Amino acid sequence: MAYLVMFVTLLHLITLAMLFIATMEKSWWVWDGMENSDLWYNCRFDNFTGTWLCASSKETEWLQAVQVLMVLSVVFSSVSFLVFLGQLFTMSKGGLFYFTGLCQVFAGLTAFSAALIYSLHHKEILPSSKELTSGHFGYCFILAWVCVPLLLCSGVVYIHLRKKE
Fold first, then answer.
1. Which tens digits make up the pLDDT trace of 77-119?
2. Domain 2-29+58-160, what fold?
3. Exposure winner among 68, 102, 130, 133, fewest CB in 10 A?
4. Angle between helices 2-24 and 98-125 in degrees, nearest 10
5. Are 42 and 127 in contact (CB under 8 A)?
6. Is 6 buried (19+), middle (13-18) or exposed (0-12) by CB count in 10 A?
7. Long-range contacts of 122-128 (CB under 8 A, 24+ apart)
8. DSSP H helical segments within 57-160, as ranges?
């Protein structure tokens, strides 16, 4: 039982870190390695100064939906982890981690919704001046998709997990 609790805790921390990286990093869409776009900024690399120059993304309804859903996913997963720690030490023997599991499932569903909206509406979200065929989805977008099954699986495991002595 101790190994299962350690596995679930480690899985939870990994998915939480991946969600945070996917939400905050600058690589949801990449053009030739010199320009990229994320949920918050459009950036390009300046060869002269050797730095990234970033400007705020154009606020569209689709981008705002993706931003809100990704932040909600991070919040649900964080609340889930804190509640799990609290329940681990205060719950009576034989209790189930329903609330923790439901929060993880909601985190997975919100991350799924955000990634799905971005993949379906990236043409409206990205700057219209750039040629989209020369770009591709970045690693943060892929991290968001990888988080979805991990969050849903950990949520199901939490729902079936019983506290034992």
1. 999 999 998 888 887 776 778 889 999 999 999 999 999 999 9
2. Butyryl-CoA Dehydrogenase, subunit A; domain 3 (1.20.140)
3. 133
4. 20
5. yes
6. exposed
7. 122/29, 124/60, 124/62, 125/37, 125/57, 125/60, 125/62, 125/63, 125/66, 126/29, 126/37, 127/37, 127/42, 127/57, 127/58
8. 61-90, 98-125, 139-160
